[in-house]
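so my prof wants the structure for this chain in the tokens format not the other one, which i didnt know existed until like an hour ago. anyway here's the sequence
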Amino acid sequence: MIVWLNGTHGAGKTTTSALVQQLIPDSRVFDAEKVGQTLMDITPALPETGNFQHWPPWRQLVVETARRVLDYTGGTLVMPMTVLVEEYWREISTGLARHAVPVRHFVLHADHEVLRGRIAADTVVGPDSPFRLEYLEHYAEAARTWLHNEAEVVDTTHLTPAQVAKQIAGSVKS
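here's what i got, hopefully its the right format
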């Protein structure tokens, strides 16, 4: 099974994924961003798109990597990854379904101002990330038009990452 944690920057996906992994036996965290980083290392570079998710190989490789890891290890993959383009989500989820990989899709949601505050307080990436701030509007549009209908929405606005992880793990186990 895959537990996919979606949502925009600042929602708590990375922190929550590590905590969910601790609560679900025989689970591992697979960050699909690493697939994008690998593609960004290709030289000469792939065509400039502004986001590795726009490269079709990224979506195909995410499906292949996840299914191959699950074939090898069994258990559950916890995947923290923002996907805000409906067509891309459909491609990934359909690809996983073709390989009979069940997916529990969660969206970690928080109020806009809370997200801005979390991004500003981030000591790892830093507060001045135009990329992260730019995606707040993309997230809001996806949430309004399709994303919240395609997932189990967990409002993280007033919850700690541990509370969010416990809620997700409890939902997955039941």
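also thought this was worth mentioning. Helices lie at 13-23, 33-40, 56-73, 86-98, 112-121, 130-145, 161-173.
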